[in-house]
TrEMBL record:
It comes from Amycolatopsis ultiminotia. Pfam families: GerE, Response_reg. The modification 4-aspartylphosphate is found at residue 57. It comes from the Bacteria. InterPro entries: CheY-like_superfamily (IPR011006), NreC/VraR/RcsB-like_REC (IPR058245), Sig_transdc_resp-reg_C-effctor (IPR016032), Sig_transdc_resp-reg_receiver (IPR001789), Tscrpt_reg_LuxR_C (IPR000792), WalR-like (IPR039420). Residues 6-124 form the Response regulatory domain. PROSITE patterns: HTH_LUXR_1, HTH_LUXR_2, RESPONSE_REGULATORY. This is Response regulator transcription factor. Residues 151-216 form the HTH luxR-type domain. Keywords: DNA-binding, Phosphoprotein, Transcription, Transcription regulation. Transmembrane segments: none annotated.
Length: 219
């Protein structure tokens, strides 16, 4: 019997937090192991309860979700925790920074419960959660704020085909969509994605999107 996914919920609005806890705890394959109302408390509590996934709000007092995500899942963390960021799309301008800080994905706060639960399960498996349309709008909207590197695509350790796949990932396409676009199998796409992540030292597709924008592969 598989152990339930251990979830820590962090949101400064008690009503929202209570709703999240109720929805998650009602699932037979999930268990809420803690809840809190600010990022600093999330970092401290995570060290005690060792969650599999942290459901993290962005705007909170004491320490916001970006700072907390960086401490829980940033590049310098030896044993990163998987973080699923919740955001209000029209208000939060910091989701890109949260993804860059190490979040494994994000959902809109008004997403239905089924999407929330799917998101938690997806992130718990180690996969990234990126809704294609929201990704295009969100990252594209703030692309001008992303400081590009001086490297050119020719400087990157990728083949032309791998660069093409990376651009499609950054455009928010799923593996099946990439397969259709390039007329190749999904297994081949998975191989390309794995090579790209390995060559660039990236953890998941989220980081690949950030990387592509940082290197001017998409605009």
């Amino acid at each position: 019997m598989t152990a339930p996914v251990r979830v820590l919920v962090c949101d400064d609005q008690m009503l929202i937090r209570t709703g999240l806890v109720t929805i998650i705890d009602a699932q037979p394959d999930m268990e809420v192991v803690g809840e809190c109302g600010d990022g600093q408390a999330a970092v401290e509590l995570a060290a005690k309860v060792t969650p599999d996934v942290v459901v993290m709000d962005v705007r909170m007092p004491v320490l916001d979700g970006i700072g907390a995500t960086r401490l829980l899942a940033g590049a310098a963390v030896e044993e990163p925790v998987k973080v699923l960021v919740l955001t209000t799309f029209n208000l939060d301008e910091y989701v890109y920074e949260a993804l860059r800080a190490g979040a494994s994905g994000f959902l809109l706060k008004d997403a239905p419960p089924t999407q929330l639960l799917h998101g938690i399960r997806t992130v718990a498996t180690g996969a990234a959660l990126l809704d294609p349309e929201v990704t295009r709008q969100l990252v594209g909207r703030y692309a001008a704020r992303i400081r590009p590197t001086e490297e050119t695509p020719g400087d990157l350790p990728l083949t032309p085909r791998e660069l093409e796949v990376l651009r499609l990932i950054a455009d928010g396409q799923s593996n099946s969509e990439i397969a259709g676009t390039l007329s190749i199998s999904q297994e081949t796409v998975k191989t390309f994605v794995s090579r790209i992540l390995t060559k660039l030292g990236l953890r998941d597709r989220v980081q690949a999107v950030v990387y592509a924008y940082r290197h001017g592969l998409v605009t």
